[in-house]
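ARCHIVE CARD
CATEGORY: sequence design from structure
SOURCE FIELD: tokenized fold
FIELD CONTENT:
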């Protein structure tokens, strides 16, 4: 700080230790000043006894005021000799300093001094000169007048210069919290000159944005982020702000959302949800991949190799949808739910097998204790086909016995085996197992006899017989052969 000459009549002198001007505050930052006001006796005079020193600060918001808010000023002192007591006024604009100890006096010798230290002074925003008002109650030890030991009140001022801080400095760029939660807000702070200085902030590849003051808040941070602050000063030749000064700081994110072009890791632990996505909707996993919990596939699962179940049970639950395969589904045992199964020997197990509106097709044998073909039809374990209607389409029912109250073969033949029942209906011929045709009602026949007497008898209800046709008589053991002629 600058000092001025003190009038030579003064017993005490007071000068600031540091003549550097105090930097004025700005709209965005309050500058805090420090004053070390050192009191000594004037040169060439005897020792001076002092009982009190009072220092008053000019308070206001003009260029001749030191501060507009003295309430937070801190104070202390240093002294060569006895201690001093410092009593500030309520607003801390005035400080009364008195020596402690017997007699309440402090003797300023050539080497003795008292220094009042005022810290954290909020310096006003206007440059100028502020005068501190000083009052000292002091007297020399050689005074012989009637006023001996009666101290004089000396009043004088000490100027303090306030100036714009025009030198460049840039430091202490950091995050208020080194770690924030996911999607949290990072509060950044720094110290730097404001005179002819621009600050530009960038991070995560974003274009730099100009910021003002000495702090900035960035919201929505989801991953560990490095912030770069660029302090730009004017070029002395072009006056353009193209002189760059960089500082950086990094804030970490708890449970971050990581976005990476490529990630290499020996182990990745995901306690909740792992979402793997890409611009072409393709995710490639090389090597062995283990899923210890449920895996949900919303679209198709395409496997070019083999799905192997080494232990436990592989369960595929289609819910209300379908499980479709265009190839062969095979394995040691394929389980189709809690009630259905496909064993490795080809057997279908379960209490019921339902194909819905589709077909169950096999080129082999379908067998079991009971094969139920719906609510109307069934194939029992004894080989019987039960139901109101059995339809084989254009095929054939062959082998074994076909029984029932009505067996209809449609327009096709019923061949092989025995047909039993109260009624047999066929639109075609009925052939016996020996290849002979069965005569039906309405058929016309021819009779051929190979006996010698050539006689045909008609039996009546009385048991008598009459000749229908007589040839030679005398032969009773005649054999007649029936020949089909045609139908009416």
């Amino acid at each position: 700080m600058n000092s001025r000459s003190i009038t030579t009549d003064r017993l005490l002198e007071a000068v600031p230790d540091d003549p550097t001007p105090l930097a004025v505050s700005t709209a965005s930052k309050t500058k805090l000043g420090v004053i070390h006001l050192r009191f000594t006796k004037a040169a060439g005079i005897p020792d001076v006894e002092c009982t009190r020193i009072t220092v008053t600060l000019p308070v206001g918001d003009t260029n001749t005021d030191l501060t507009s808010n003295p309430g937070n000023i801190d104070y202390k002192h240093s002294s060569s000799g006895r201690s001093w007591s410092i009593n500030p006024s309520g607003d801390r604009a005035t400080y009364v300093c008195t020596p402690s100890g017997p007699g309440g006096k402090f003797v300023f010798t050539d080497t003795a001094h008292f220094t009042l230290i005022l810290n954290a002074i909020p310096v006003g925003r206007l440059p100028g000169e502020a005068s501190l008002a000083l009052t000292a109650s002091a007297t020399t030890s050689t005074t012989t007048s009637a006023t001996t030991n009666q101290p004089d009140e000396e009043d004088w001022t000490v100027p303090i210069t306030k100036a714009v801080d025009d030198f460049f400095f840039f430091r202490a760029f950091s995050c208020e919290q080194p770690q924030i939660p996911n999607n949290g807000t990072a509060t950044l702070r720094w110290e730097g000159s404001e005179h002819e200085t621009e600050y530009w902030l960038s991070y995560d590849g974003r274009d730099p944005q100009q910021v003002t003051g000495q702090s900035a808040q960035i919201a929505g941070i989801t991953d560990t982020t490095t912030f770069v602050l660029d302090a730009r000063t004017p070029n002395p030749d072009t006056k353009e702000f193209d002189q760059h000064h960089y500082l950086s700081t990094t804030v970490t994110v708890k449970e971050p959302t990581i976005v990476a072009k490529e990630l290499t890791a020996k182990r990745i632990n995901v306690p909740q949800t792992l979402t793997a996505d890409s611009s072409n909707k393709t995710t490639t996993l090389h090597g062995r991949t283990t899923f210890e919990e449920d895996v949900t596939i919303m679209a198709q699962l395409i496997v070019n190799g083999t799905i192997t179940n080494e232990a436990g049970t592989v369960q595929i639950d289609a819910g209300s949808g379908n499980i479709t395969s265009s190839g062969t589904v095979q394995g040691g045992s394929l389980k189709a739910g809690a009630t259905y199964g496909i064993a490795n020997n080809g057997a279908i197990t379960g209490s019921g097998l339902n194909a819905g509106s589709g077909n169950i097709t096999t080129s082999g044998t379908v067998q079991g204790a009971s094969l139920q073909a719906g609510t109307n039809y069934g194939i029992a374990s004894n080989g019987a086909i039960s139901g109101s209607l059995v339809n084989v389409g254009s095929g054939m029912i062959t082998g074994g016995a076909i029984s029932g109250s009505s067996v209809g073969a449609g327009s096709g033949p019923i061949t092989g085996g025995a047909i039993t029942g109260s009624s047999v209906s066929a639109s075609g011929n009925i052939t016996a197992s020996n290849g002979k045709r069965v005569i039906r009602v309405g058929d016309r026949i021819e009779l051929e006899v190979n006996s010698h007497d050539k006689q045909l008898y008609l039996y009546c209800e009385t048991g008598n017989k009459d000749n229908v046709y007589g040839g030679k008589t005398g032969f009773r053991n005649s054999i007649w052969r029936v020949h089909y002629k045609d139908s009416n």
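CARD ANNOTATION: Confidence is low (pLDDT under 50) at residues 1-8. The two ends are 147 Å apart (CA to CA).
SHELF: design records, drawer C
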